[in-house]
Each structure stands twice: as C-alpha cells, then as structure tokens.
Amino acid sequence: MPPLMGIEFLCRVADVLSEYLGGLNEDVIKDNFVIVYELLDEMIDNGFPLTTEPNILREMIAPPNIVSKVLSVVTGNSSNVSDTLPGATGSCVPWRAADPKYANNEVYVDLVEEMDAVINRDGVLVKCEIYGEVQVNSHLSGLPDLTLSFANPSILDDVRFHPCVRFRPWESHQLLSFVPPDGEFKLMSYRVKKLKSTPIYVKPQLTSDAGKCRVNVLVGIKNDPGKTIDSITLQFQLPPCILSADLTSNHGTVNILSNKICSWSIGRIPKDKAPSLTGTLVLETELERLHVFPTFRVGFRIMGVALSGLQIDKLDLKTVPNRLYKGFRALTRAGEFEVRS
Amino acid sequence: MFPQFGATAESLSKASTMVFRIGTDAHLYDDPDDVSIAPLLDSKFDSEKCEALKRLLALIAQGFDVSNFFPQVVKNVASQSLEVKKLVYLYLLHYAEKRPNEALLSINCFQKDLGDPNPLVRAWALRTMAGIRLHVIAPLVLVAVGKCARDPSVYVRKCAANALPKLHDLRQEEHTSSIEEIVGILLNDHSPAVVGAAAAAFASVCPYNLSLIGRNYRKLCEILPDVEEWGQIVLIGILLRYVIARHGLVKESIMCSLQCTDSSHSEKNSSDVDFGLVKESRDMSGTCDSEFVNMVSRCYIEGPDEYLSRSSYANRVSFELNGAQFTSGKSNDDVKILLCCTSPLLWSNNSAVVLAAASVHWVMAPKEDVKRIIKPLLFILRSSNASKYVVLCNIQVFAKAMPSLFAPYYEDFFIYSSESYQIKALKLEILSSITIDSSISSIFKEFQDYIRDPDRRFAADTVAAIGQCVQRLPKMTHICVDGLLALIRKEFLTNDFGSGDQEAGVLVQAIMSIKSIIKQDPPSHEKVIIQLVRSLDSIKVPAARAMIIWMVGEYSSLGVIIPRMLTTVLKYLAWCFTSESLETKLQILNTASKVLLGATGEDLWTFKKVFSYLVELAECDLNYDVRDRAHFLKKLQSCNLVSRGPEEGTNGLPEKDLHVVAEYIFGRQRRDVKAESINYRFYLPGSLSQIVLHAAPGYEPLPKPCSLLPDDLNVPEGTCSIKKGAADYGGTDGYGTSSGSSDDEEESASAYGSQRSITGSSGGSRGDDSEFTSEGNDNVDPLIQISDIGNASENENGVSQSSTNLVELMSNRALESWLDEQPGSSNPGISEQSKVRKSSARISIGDVGRRVKPKSYSLLDPANGNGLKVDYSFSSEISSISHLLVCIEVFFKNCSSETVTEITLVDEESNRALDSADQASVVDESSLLSYDNVPTLVPMEEIASLEPGQTTSRILQVRFHHHLLPLKLALFCDGKKLPVKLRPDIGYFVKPLPMDVEVFMDKESHLRGMFEYTRSCTFTDHIEELNKESGDSLLIKDKFLAICESLALKMLSNANLCLVSVDMPVATNLDDASGLRLRFSCEILSSLIPCLITITVEGKCSDPLNLSIKVNCEQTVFGLNLLNRIVNFLVECVLF
C-alpha cells in the first residue's frame, strides 16, 4: 500500500470519528467505544478501505445524538446499527443517500479561505497565496443536479474536486457540475497564488546589545478589506538563548507559556491606536547580541470576504424544486502567515 | 483561596461531562464486568445480549482475554438482530483463530445468512466467514465467494472481492486458479465500486497475471474516474504495469530521454515562453540530467539493487533496450487512453490518487506534457506534515531528474518555521537543485533569512545548500563567498561563548562550503583564502581551524601573496601548536610538511626550522596519533631536512625514493574526484520504498517492457500465462529475491558439505569404531573436536588416552563406551564405575548406542505439501558455526508420484529482513560468531530434485530465540512457499559436558538453594524390559542394570546429555531399587553454563518406580524448563 494512501486513510478515519463524536480524544473514544469499533469495522476490511463515504456510514451506523441518547436512557434499548443496506452503496453516486425528502430545500455555499504568507526580515512580502475551499451544505430533495460557476475562474491556480464533480464541464467551460451529497461537504479546494498584499501588517523590531534585547512589535490594518478583522493573534517562539522576557502590550493580553512560546491575543484592532507589544529580553550571560531571530506567526479572521477575490457567479439547479433557498457566505482566515524578524 | 468554590467548580465540570456521557456506552467501558456477563449472553432479549456483547468488547478494548465466552457468543450468531450480529462478528473475528474448533460451530449460521434476502446480512456473513481464516473452511468460503461474486447487490460483490485476498492469504495452492478466476469475473463487473475492490484483490492475489487486465483494459481505463478513490490508487498502478509489460516504454517520455537528442529540448524551449529566460542554464541541466534520468528509468524497471550491482559503470550505460521495446505515445491507443483517463485524477481530492496519477504521467507522458503534474503535486503539498514529507520525497526525485520542471515554482519550497526539520531539509535540497539564474537572487535572500533561524541545525543545512547552489551556478560565486565570509566573521563573534555544538556546526559548514567553492577554481579565490587565514586567530572551533589550515597547505604556492605570508602563518601555527586539539595538530603537521616540500629559496631554511620544531613538539605529544604522525613525517622529510648536504651519500637511493613518496603524498596534483556519486536508489514514485530508500517488502519494480506477448491475451484461461508471467519476473520479484540469495546459501551449504565429507572420512579411518560412532561424529567440526578434546583431557586429570577413546567419551553416547569398556582399560577418575562394572561384569549392553533413537517430529504433512513429507529430529551434534545454533536433522521424503524440485528451507523473518535490508550478501562465517549476527537459520543446501519415493536428509542449524516457542520457517519447493513450524526441544539446547563425579559433586554443592529444582514422577519403561528379559530367561540381567539401562536410554534419546555416574544401592534386597542414582551433566549451548541432573530411584524393581529428578543450574528459567521436559518424557510411555 502506498504510504500516502495510508496517511490519507487515517486522516479520513479521524475526520469521520470526530464528526461522529464531536471531537477526537481519548475520553470521547472510550465513551463511545462500541461505535468506534463498528465504524472501524465498516471502514476497513482486511487492511483495505471498504466504506469511507461519510453519508453511507451515517446511514449504516447512526451517529450518537441527543434523541438517541435520551431514547436509550428511557427505553434502555439503543440500536445504532441500521437494518438495511443504504441504497447509495449500489448507486452510481455513492456519496448521496437515496432520495431524501425535505420540506425546505436549501443549499448554502461557503468560501473558506486561508491566507499563507511569508514576510521576510526586510519587510518584503515574499510569498502570499490563498488556499480556499468551497464548502457546500445541501438539503435538497430527490436527485438534484447543480451547476456552480465563478465570475473569475481564471485566477484559480489549481483545483481539487470532490468525487461528485464532473471533469468535462470544468475542462471545457470551468463550470462545476455535480450531484451533491446530502449535508455538508467540501466541493472543491483551490489555490490562488501571487497575491500582492495582506490585510494587516506586523512590524517586529528587535535590537540587542549588552546582553539585552529590545522588542517592539506593531500591528495594524494595511489594506482595509471592508470588513472587520477579528481574532488577531500573534505567536512566536523565544530563541533558546533567552533567559527571561518581560513583555507588555497596550492592547490585548500577552502570555508566555512554559515552552517559551509567547502569544499575544489582540482581538480586534481598536480605532484610536495601533496595538504594540514592547518589552525586553534578557540574553544568556555571555551573549552580547542576539544572532537568531524568532518568526512571528499571525492569526486573524475576516468574515464576509474572500481575499482571493474569487466570486461565485451563480448556482443553478436543473430541476428547480419549489421553495428553494440559496445562500452564499465567505470567510478568510490566516493559514501559515509568518513574519520574520 | 476559595477551596469550597473550587470544589463546586470541579463537581460542576464533572457533572457537565456526566451529562455528555449519558446515553453513551461509557458506563459499559468503565465497569465492564460489574454484572455477570454469562447470563446476559443467554438472555432471550436482544437488548441484554447486546449489552453483554458490548461489555465483552469493552474488555477486549482494555486488553483482557475473554475468549472463554466463545461458545456462548458463537451461539448468538443466529440472532436476528443486526446489532447483535455485528457485535458477535466483531468478537468472532477477534478470537476465531484462537478457538478454531468452536469457531466452526458458527459456519452453519453463516451459510444460512448467505442466503438471506437482506444484502447487508449476506455481506457481513461473507466478510466474517472469510475473516475467520481457518484452513478447514477455506473450500466453503471459496464457494461462498464464488456465489457472492454473482450477487445482485453491488455491496455484496464488493465484499466478495475483498474476501479474495483473505482466502489467498491462507496459501492453499489448490484454490489459486479458482480465486484468480473470480478476480477476473469481478474485474469485468459493470459497477465501479466492485472494480475498485477487484483491483485491490488482483494486486494482492495475482499481480503478475496481467493478461486478466489485458482482456478488460479499455473498460478499466474508462471506468477509472468513477472507481472509488482507494480502488483508483491500486488500479492506476496495475494499468501502468500492464501498459509497460504490453507495449514497453513510451519513446517520447522522459524515461527514454537518453535516446532522444536535445532537439526535443530546444523545441520545448522555443514553445515555452515562460522558460525563455532560463534557456541557457536549462540546456546545461538538460544535458546533465539525461544520465540521471536514464538511471532512474532503469531503476524503475529493474529495481535499484539489481541495477546498481551490475558490475561496471560502462555496462550500465551501454545496456540498452532495443528499439522494439519502445512504443510511441502518439500512435499507441492504449497509452493514450491511460494518460487521458488519469489526467482528471490529478484534480482528485485524495492526495494518494493525485500522486499515483502523477507517477503514471511521469513514466508515460510525452516530455512536453509532464509539466501538467507539477501544479497538482505542489497543491497536495499543503496538507499534514506526514503527507507533506511523502510528497516532498517524490518531488525530490522528479526535481533532480528534471530541474527545469520545478524551477519556476521555487516559491512553493520556501520554508515555514512551523515545519518539521525533515521537511525543511528536503525543501532545502530541492531548492538547491532547482535554482536557476533567474531565481537565485530571491532564493539567496530566503537563505539569508534561514541562517538566522533559531534552529541551528537547519541553519547549517542552509549554509551547505548555498555551497551546492554555487556549484550549480558558478556565476553567483562571488556574492556567495562574500556572504559566507561575512557569516564566518559574524559567527565567530558569538562563537566564543559556548552557544553549543550547533553554532560550531554552522561555522564548519560555512567553511566547508567555501572550501568546495574554492576547489572549483582556486586561482580566483586567493583573497578568500587569505581572509580565512587572517580569521584563524579568532576561530576556535577545531574542525573549522583544521579545514583552514588544510587550505593553507593545499594552496601554499597559489598566487603571489600566499607564499609571502606563509612564514608568518607557519610561525603562528607552531606557536599555538601545543594548545590545539588533535585534528588541528595533525593538520598543522601535514601543512608544514606540504609547505616544506614546495618551498624554495631563502624560506626553505625557516620552514625547515619550523618543521623540526613542530616535529619535536609532536613527538612529545600525549596523543599517540600525533606522535606517530610526527615520526612518519620526520622519516619522510628526512631528505629535505638533512640530505641537501653533500656528505650524506650512503643511502641516497632510498632517500630519493622517500622524496618521490613525499611528493606523491603531499603533491599538488589533485585527482579528479567525482563531485558526487550518483548511485542513488530510485523506486517507483509513490511507493513506500521510495520513502525509506530500500526495497520494502512487497515492492515490485515495473515489469520488463514488452514481456507480455499479445498471444497471452488470447489464452482463455489465465493459468498458462501466470506461469509465463512468473517466469518473466523471476529475476526481480518477491520470489526472485530469495532465489538471488540462494546462490549464497548454496555456496555456504556446500562448504558444510565438504567439511562433512572430510570429517566423515576421518571418522571412517578410525576404522574400529562401530558404525554408530562414525555416524555420530562425522558431522562434528574438527575445530570443536580438538578444543573439546583438550577440555576432556583436562577433566581426565591429564590421563593420556587414545583420541578415539576421548572422542567416544565426550560424545553423548558415553554410556555405550563406558559400559562397553573392558575391565582392563583404566578409567581411574570414576570410582563409581567400578562398582557397576563389578555387578555387570559379564553383561554387554553395547547396543544401547544403536538403540538411542532421537525422536522424530513431523514438519510437513504430505497432505499439505503436495506429497512432500518432511520430518525432523534433533541431532546430538554440535554446530560448528556458533554455539547458539542447534543442529536438526531434517528428512525429506517424496510421497507423491512426481518429482519435487528445488526444496529449501528458509527462515521466514530473516528472509524478510534480508529482503528489506538489501543485505542478501554472503553471510560469512566469521560474522556469525558474534551474538547478534547469528542467523536464525544457517542457509540450507538446496535439494535440487527429489524423485518419487526418494528420501534425503539435511542437517539444519537453527537458532531458536526461545526454548519453548516454535519457530516459523518457510519451505520452498517447486517455487512455492509453504509455512512450517519448527518446535524446539529443550533437551537439545544443551551439549554433553563430560566430567567426573567429584567435579560433579563439587559443582552441585555450589548450586544449592535457588539454583536447585526438584520434581518427581513415575517411571514404567523398565517393567516391560524386565518382563522381556524374564521371557527369554537364558540370560538374566541384573535388574538394577536393566533399570539403569532403560533410564539412561530414555534420557539420552531425549536430551543431549552425558552420563556421569551411576550409584548402586547397597543390595540388601535384590528387588528394592531404592537408592539407585544416575547423574547426568551437560552445558547450555547458548551460555555454556553447566547444568547438572540427578535422578534418584525409589521403589521396587518390578513396580513402577518413583523417580525424583533434580536439576542444578544457574539459569533458573532454563533449568525449570529442562526439568519439566525431562519429567514429561520420562513419564510418557514410548514403545521401542
């Protein structure tokens, strides 16, 4: 078995388990050991993946939910194993449960983007790219056939698709044509490279002499994306040669963890001032000057904006059911956003 | 501060977690056995059964063995509730192998379930039934799988496909063809889900039967995008193999780039606008990588081990595929369709699928199309650290073979500080191999940042990478060298203050990089050398100093300035010599003598003085390496130092020679060392072997191009072509590896053979020995014999005896020689013997030796082994190779009517280990001596063929890792592998240790207390003997002697012991055997610790005797096990 296949499968198992159990840790697994056993038995057979499609699994083995829990307490009887084979196992769209019925037909499309950026010691943006996902949450009756098109597909550098996406229409017209799975799923992931700017700036300054190092980090909004930027955090690992650190900020809280990781949570940037972190680091006794420099890792979140500039043009259904609701959202957050000092 | 508040908070949080746990099975996990499970299992309510099963599952999860519930659980297979069924199946699969007999009880239910209208029930029944893995039910499973392969439900058919590898794992040869037939049926299925599973089955059941693929090739290609992702991964690999085997390599692909001239390169250049800028450098890289690519492609097809082992380099290059083995991607439809169907998979969500599809394109696609795999590969880089590493390992090979592919995407390999060190190192390596003129400046900017990274190991790697970049792109030399020099100046500032080895590592790496840069063009870097020399005073790291000093010596005559400053430098070095570390001292001596050799004119005198001073210092150094070097150099330079004067004419010639030698050693003609040997190992992209860089178990290189002939496809049944396929791949596949090493096995085995014949003949020359003794001794290695004789004669207090006698004495058949001995021949050490001799004076029981028959065990039943019967018995001889080895005589008998060929026994684990470690080299005997290297099984001489009815035997030398657990071996015959188990007998883990009774008593007295173990048992063998004796009353034996004879016989035929003495009771009552005592001695093979056994008899001669057996041994566990074994065989009644 190729190693990547093994890794990918393990990731899939982890995804399924955390979806079932609402998290993945030792306690949760212990508490639901029967379901874990049943799931694993269904997911792998003799060392080869058997059923990994979450929709089918969910039909075969019911996930624990409040109703079933209460029911099991009341009646003392709980069976989470389905009696019948999910119809989807046989169909040519194995990701879709057979014939769900909804009173309200809804489909939500979310663009979730992560920004990877590297800013080097000179403050130059070396690399800035967006890794995005199109997440769809669909509750549609019957066997819907959807078509999603982008206003500007040419900015996409590369794409990866959920198995439900048909390759031909994408190759010829860059249209996403698909029969969606029921519920939430990741329709596609994409990459947009060579972006020119970041929404915030981080300017670290470290000057050291005589065994002390002055730290001064400034954070501010650079190109206003039009929406509020929140959950701004800054993290960096203090170099091993530092004995002690005394850091304060004019906004937000600063914590130095035991493993020498310093984290500064800013939250939102206030209107009146630019948040800054200042302080001194005491170097090892014989060290005059700092010769290794930490890298600052930045986190942030912007609701309502896809920074890549990707825009969804329209979403069409072949057979429009009555009462259809379509929703679009966007979100950008920091991925590997690093500022070197 | 508020303890009560804290407590509330805690209980609150506890309560909240309790809420979450309500309705889960948590309580079952916490106390699985707080109620008794058995009655619940027998309950008539499904919910109670369910609860009981969940409790059992919890116990299994916690590591308890609950197999004792097996019968009760199996009963519940018949339950109608699916949940109960599922839980029972989980339990069953866990314990079926342990309780095979009870597991059989469930078979009827499975059979019934297979006919159930619910497809889920059918599928589960099939999965569990196949998963039980019992040989007995294999035929039933085969029938069931055959039935399910035609099931209307897709899911059931898929499970049928998944069941095939399970069946195949049982290795029952008679089913192979029917399994393959089912694979064929399932591959032809119209449902993509089934095809995917069938592909997986194909890959594990019959990967060589490519004709199965050939029949459906088109269909499989077309269905590929719809197959589920896991099946896709396997199917892509199979299709690639098929196309290579059927059509050979594609002419336009990079795999064949050596044949195509650079014309295609320039074509590509002009067609590609992006690359226009880098045309020049790419042409350079294009030419240098063709050799590399050629190597890669050869490795893919032959497997690197075979390829690299081919003797001469020229041979490698000249060996080429002939033109017929190529096909054209443009005209061949099969190639075209495969590429066409795999290209959309490059967009797959599953990174393993992307990599598999990319590897098809890498091998098959025309050169100009290969670049389409790059973006997907770079895209899957953004994932977990583990998969990132795997992808980078593969990209590294691609990038080295075709740097131009990745050159424009250098930014993707920039390093994030959050990545692990391994990933950083890989990225650096890729970056330095894809730099081109247009990207070098930004890459260098990055490198400068990396050097200041807190991870100093990574910083050192970065410095090394800079050196490599410069070697690729000489244009950048000056900028880089300046940067590196600045770094050195900066580093040494901080360096003094002991910021550890890592800082030193950066410095050393920087100087190393400069050194390799200078090597390329020394004259233009004169100033650099001078700068380095100037910084000598401040650089304190020994390795760095040594390197700079080396450069002084090496380039001492370069340019104008260096020779002028040499005197100063040398004086400085001489001045600080005493305070230097070892490597620097050695380097100073070398440099001084190099300088001396090249010196002329007025400097010579100074150099001589400095040199003599240095040598004098060094001769008094504490380190002998330095002293030796000083003596050596003094001798070598003696002509330079002294003989310039005319008076020294006596031994002028050797001095001249010395001068030549010195010139040669320190001379400045630098031999062209190949920059880097390109003996890398390449494995197929995406494979595990490519990550670990050795052939992982199960790795298969691509099949030989065009090895699959078109006629094969028309053969209706697969069987004929399987043979062919297997033969084709014989050289490289799994079997092949073992056959490769079998040469060595044969060699070493034949060495034993010759040894045997030598000793055998010497045994024969002794002539007067009985047939038995010559047989017994002829396999003993002469070496051991001699040393043991030495020991023996020491034990005998130096009494000189003929060697024949000694050999007999030391052999485990000592009883015979001893009983046979004439009263006249003296054996003064053993006083007890005379007693026996008195009472047994006239009775000869010399045939005991011949009657000592080691027990024979069955290794392979003719029913399982196609008529080959293999038995084995432990032999009393001692291995000549290592004392850890136990000798076993193995008897092969062909009970079938056909000739069996190529029989050999191999150790399963070591075979695998050898396979994976690529160390199939000759196992030389010297290496066997050390403990760790002793193999589990000394390779056996292969039996080329065995005619029907013929019997042959081989001596096997085995190292058991445990004295109770069986050893798994693999028996190969007719090219098939049969797993067999060799059960150890602790009685043969010892060898006889001859000693006389005083020594015995003495040793025994030291091994009291916890080293002494006793057990008693009854013994009945002698009764029969006595009855027999009384029957033919002509010769009435002494009863005591009869008992003692049968006891000794029993002991000696079950263990490798030496009889030390027999104590006779003072005969008050002729029928009372109480007081009879036998003493045996031996030593443990592995540790050579002596082990003493004493058997004391109680009871009447004609009745069953009570024996008390006492073992004295330092090794407690061994002693106890040996004692148990002795008791066991003494009790068991064996008819002779």
Description:
By secondary structure, chain A is of the alpha+beta class. Chain A is built from six helices and 18 strands. Chain A has three domains: 73 residues, Beta-Lactamase (2-Layer Sandwich); 125 residues, Mu homology domain, subdomain B (Immunoglobulin-like, Sandwich); 102 residues, Immunoglobulin-like (Sandwich), CATH 2.60.40.1170. In chain A, the strands form four sheets. Chain A has a nine-stranded mixed sheet with strand order 6-8-4-3-18-16-11-14-13, with no helix packed on it. In chain A, strands 9-10-15-12 form a four-stranded antiparallel sheet, with no helix packed on it. In chain A, strand 13 and strand 14 form a beta hairpin. The longest helix of chain A has 19 residues. With 1136 residues, chain B is an alpha+beta fold. Chain B contains 53 helices and 16 strands. In chain B, a hairpin with a 6-residue loop joins strand 15 and strand 16. At the A-B interface, helix 1, helix 2, helix 3, strand 2 and helix 5 of A face helix 1, helix 2, helix 4, helix 6 and helix 9 of B.
Core attributes:
heterodimer; A: 341 residues; alpha+beta; Immunoglobulin-like; 3 domains; nine-stranded mixed beta sheet; B: 1136 residues; Leucine-rich Repeat Variant; six-stranded antiparallel beta sheet; 55% helix; globular; disordered N terminus; transport (chain B); phosphoprotein (chain B)
